[in-house]
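**Backbone description:**
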Amino acid sequence: MKYPIERKVSAVHIRSKGGLITARARIQRIACSSHSHETGINRRLRRWLGRELPLLKGEISASAARCEADRYRKHFDSFAHACLLIFHGLSGNQSLRQSYTAFPACPGLAQYSGLAKSEDPEGIGVSFSQFAESNTTRSAAFLAGIVPSLIARVRQEGKLPQGSLPPHLHIVDSTFLRLSLLLAPWLPSNNKADVPGMRIQLQYAPALDLPEHVIINDTRTSDQKGLDQILLDDPTRLAEMSGQTLVTDLGYYSHRRFRRLLAAGVHLVTRLHPQARVHVEEWLPVQQSLPTFPSGRIAVISDQRVRVGPSDNRVCGLRLVTAQVEPLPKAARRGAQPVLYRVLTDRFDLTAPEVVQIYLWRWRIELFLRWLKCYVHLSRLLGYSRNAVELSVWLAIVVHLLTVLATLSLGLSRRSPALLRQMVWVLAHVKPAGDEDHPTQAYQFPLWGPDPPDP
C-alpha cells in the first residue's frame, strides 16, 4: 500500500547565550494541503484513532494516579506529556525540540491534550524546558502502566495474517543501549573493560508481533538473571507459559534454568553450548524436509536422544538435532556460507526440520529489535537520567503497540514505516468539534470521503 506523504520544513529561532541560532525543524510526514484531504487516509484508520484516543486518556490517567505522576503538577499533566511523547515517537524527528516545534501543526490533538493556546496558535501551553525536564522528573511508570492494557487489546484483536508462525512460540532475547559515563554518571562502571549502558530484556511473541514482557536493567544483570526476572521468578507467568515453546540463544544457556522450565511444562528450543557435555542415549531416524516444507534449505545430519551436563547438573530427556542450513538467496549472493546448527529441545512430537525451523524463527526478535532502533528510534533517548532512559524504552514499546493495533484495525499483513507516517498524518488532521458536554467526542475527522482505492 502506498501512502501520500508531503514534507514541510520550517525555520525555528532559538535564543541562547551565543545569540540567535537558526535551526531547521523538519516537520515530516504531516500533509496540510487540500490534495492530501482528497486522497486521504483509509477511513478505518481514522475511526480507529477516534476509539483509541479516549481509551488512552483513561488508561494514562489511571496509570498516573497509581504512581502519583501528577502530584504537585497542575498545569502539565501526564496525558499532555504522553501526547507530546507519542507524537515525537511517531514523527521520527531527530530531536525533542523539533517535535515540540512541530506539535502545533496538530491543532486538534493539541486542544484535546489541553496544551492548545487560543491566543497563540503557533505555540503550546508548556515551555520546551518544562517538557524536557518532565522526562527526568515524572516517573516513567506512568507510560509503562498503559503497556499491559495495550498488550491485552493486541491479544484480543488476534493473530496477524503474516504467515504460518505458531501461536505457541515465544522468544527471549536482549538488546543493549550504550551510554556515556560523562552524560550518565549514575551508571555502574566496575572496570575499564565494562561497557556502560542499559540492557533491555524482552519476551516476544512473533505470531502477534507482541513484546509480552519487558524489563530494563544495567550491565550488572546478565541474560540468565534477566530470564529469572522475566519468567522463572514469577509463578503466575510461569504457569501461563505451560505448554508453550520458549526459544533462547546461548546467552540464556543454563542447565539449572532448563530443568525449572521443563518442570513447569514449558517446552524449550535452544542451541547446544559448545562446551556442554553430551551423552547420547539413542540415535533416532534422520528425517529430511518434505518438498512442501517452507524451509527446504534445512539438511538434517543427525537426530539423537541425549542428556547434557555433568552428573551434578544434568538435564535428561532431551533431543539434539544437528542440521546444515543454507543461507537465504540474498545472503548467498553476498557470500554467506551454510551454517551448522546443533539444536537442543524436548519437543519429540516435531520432525527434525521443524525443530530447526523453530530455532530459525528466533531471528524474528532480532528484526523486531532492529525495528525499534531504526524506525521507532529507540536509540534517540529523551535524556540521560535513568528515568529518561527508561521513559525512552517505554515510549518505543507504546509506539510499536499502537502501530500493531492500527495494523490489525486496517487488516494489513504487517506493520511498516509507512504506517507510522500515515498515523502522523491522521494526528495532524484531528479537529475539535467543540462539544464540551461530551469530552470523549470533542473531536472529529474532517472530509469523510470514500476510502482511497487499494493499489
In short: Residues 164-186+195-372 form a domain with the Transposase Inhibitor Protein From Tn5; Chain A, domain 1 fold (CATH 3.90.350.10). The chain has 16 helices and eleven strands.
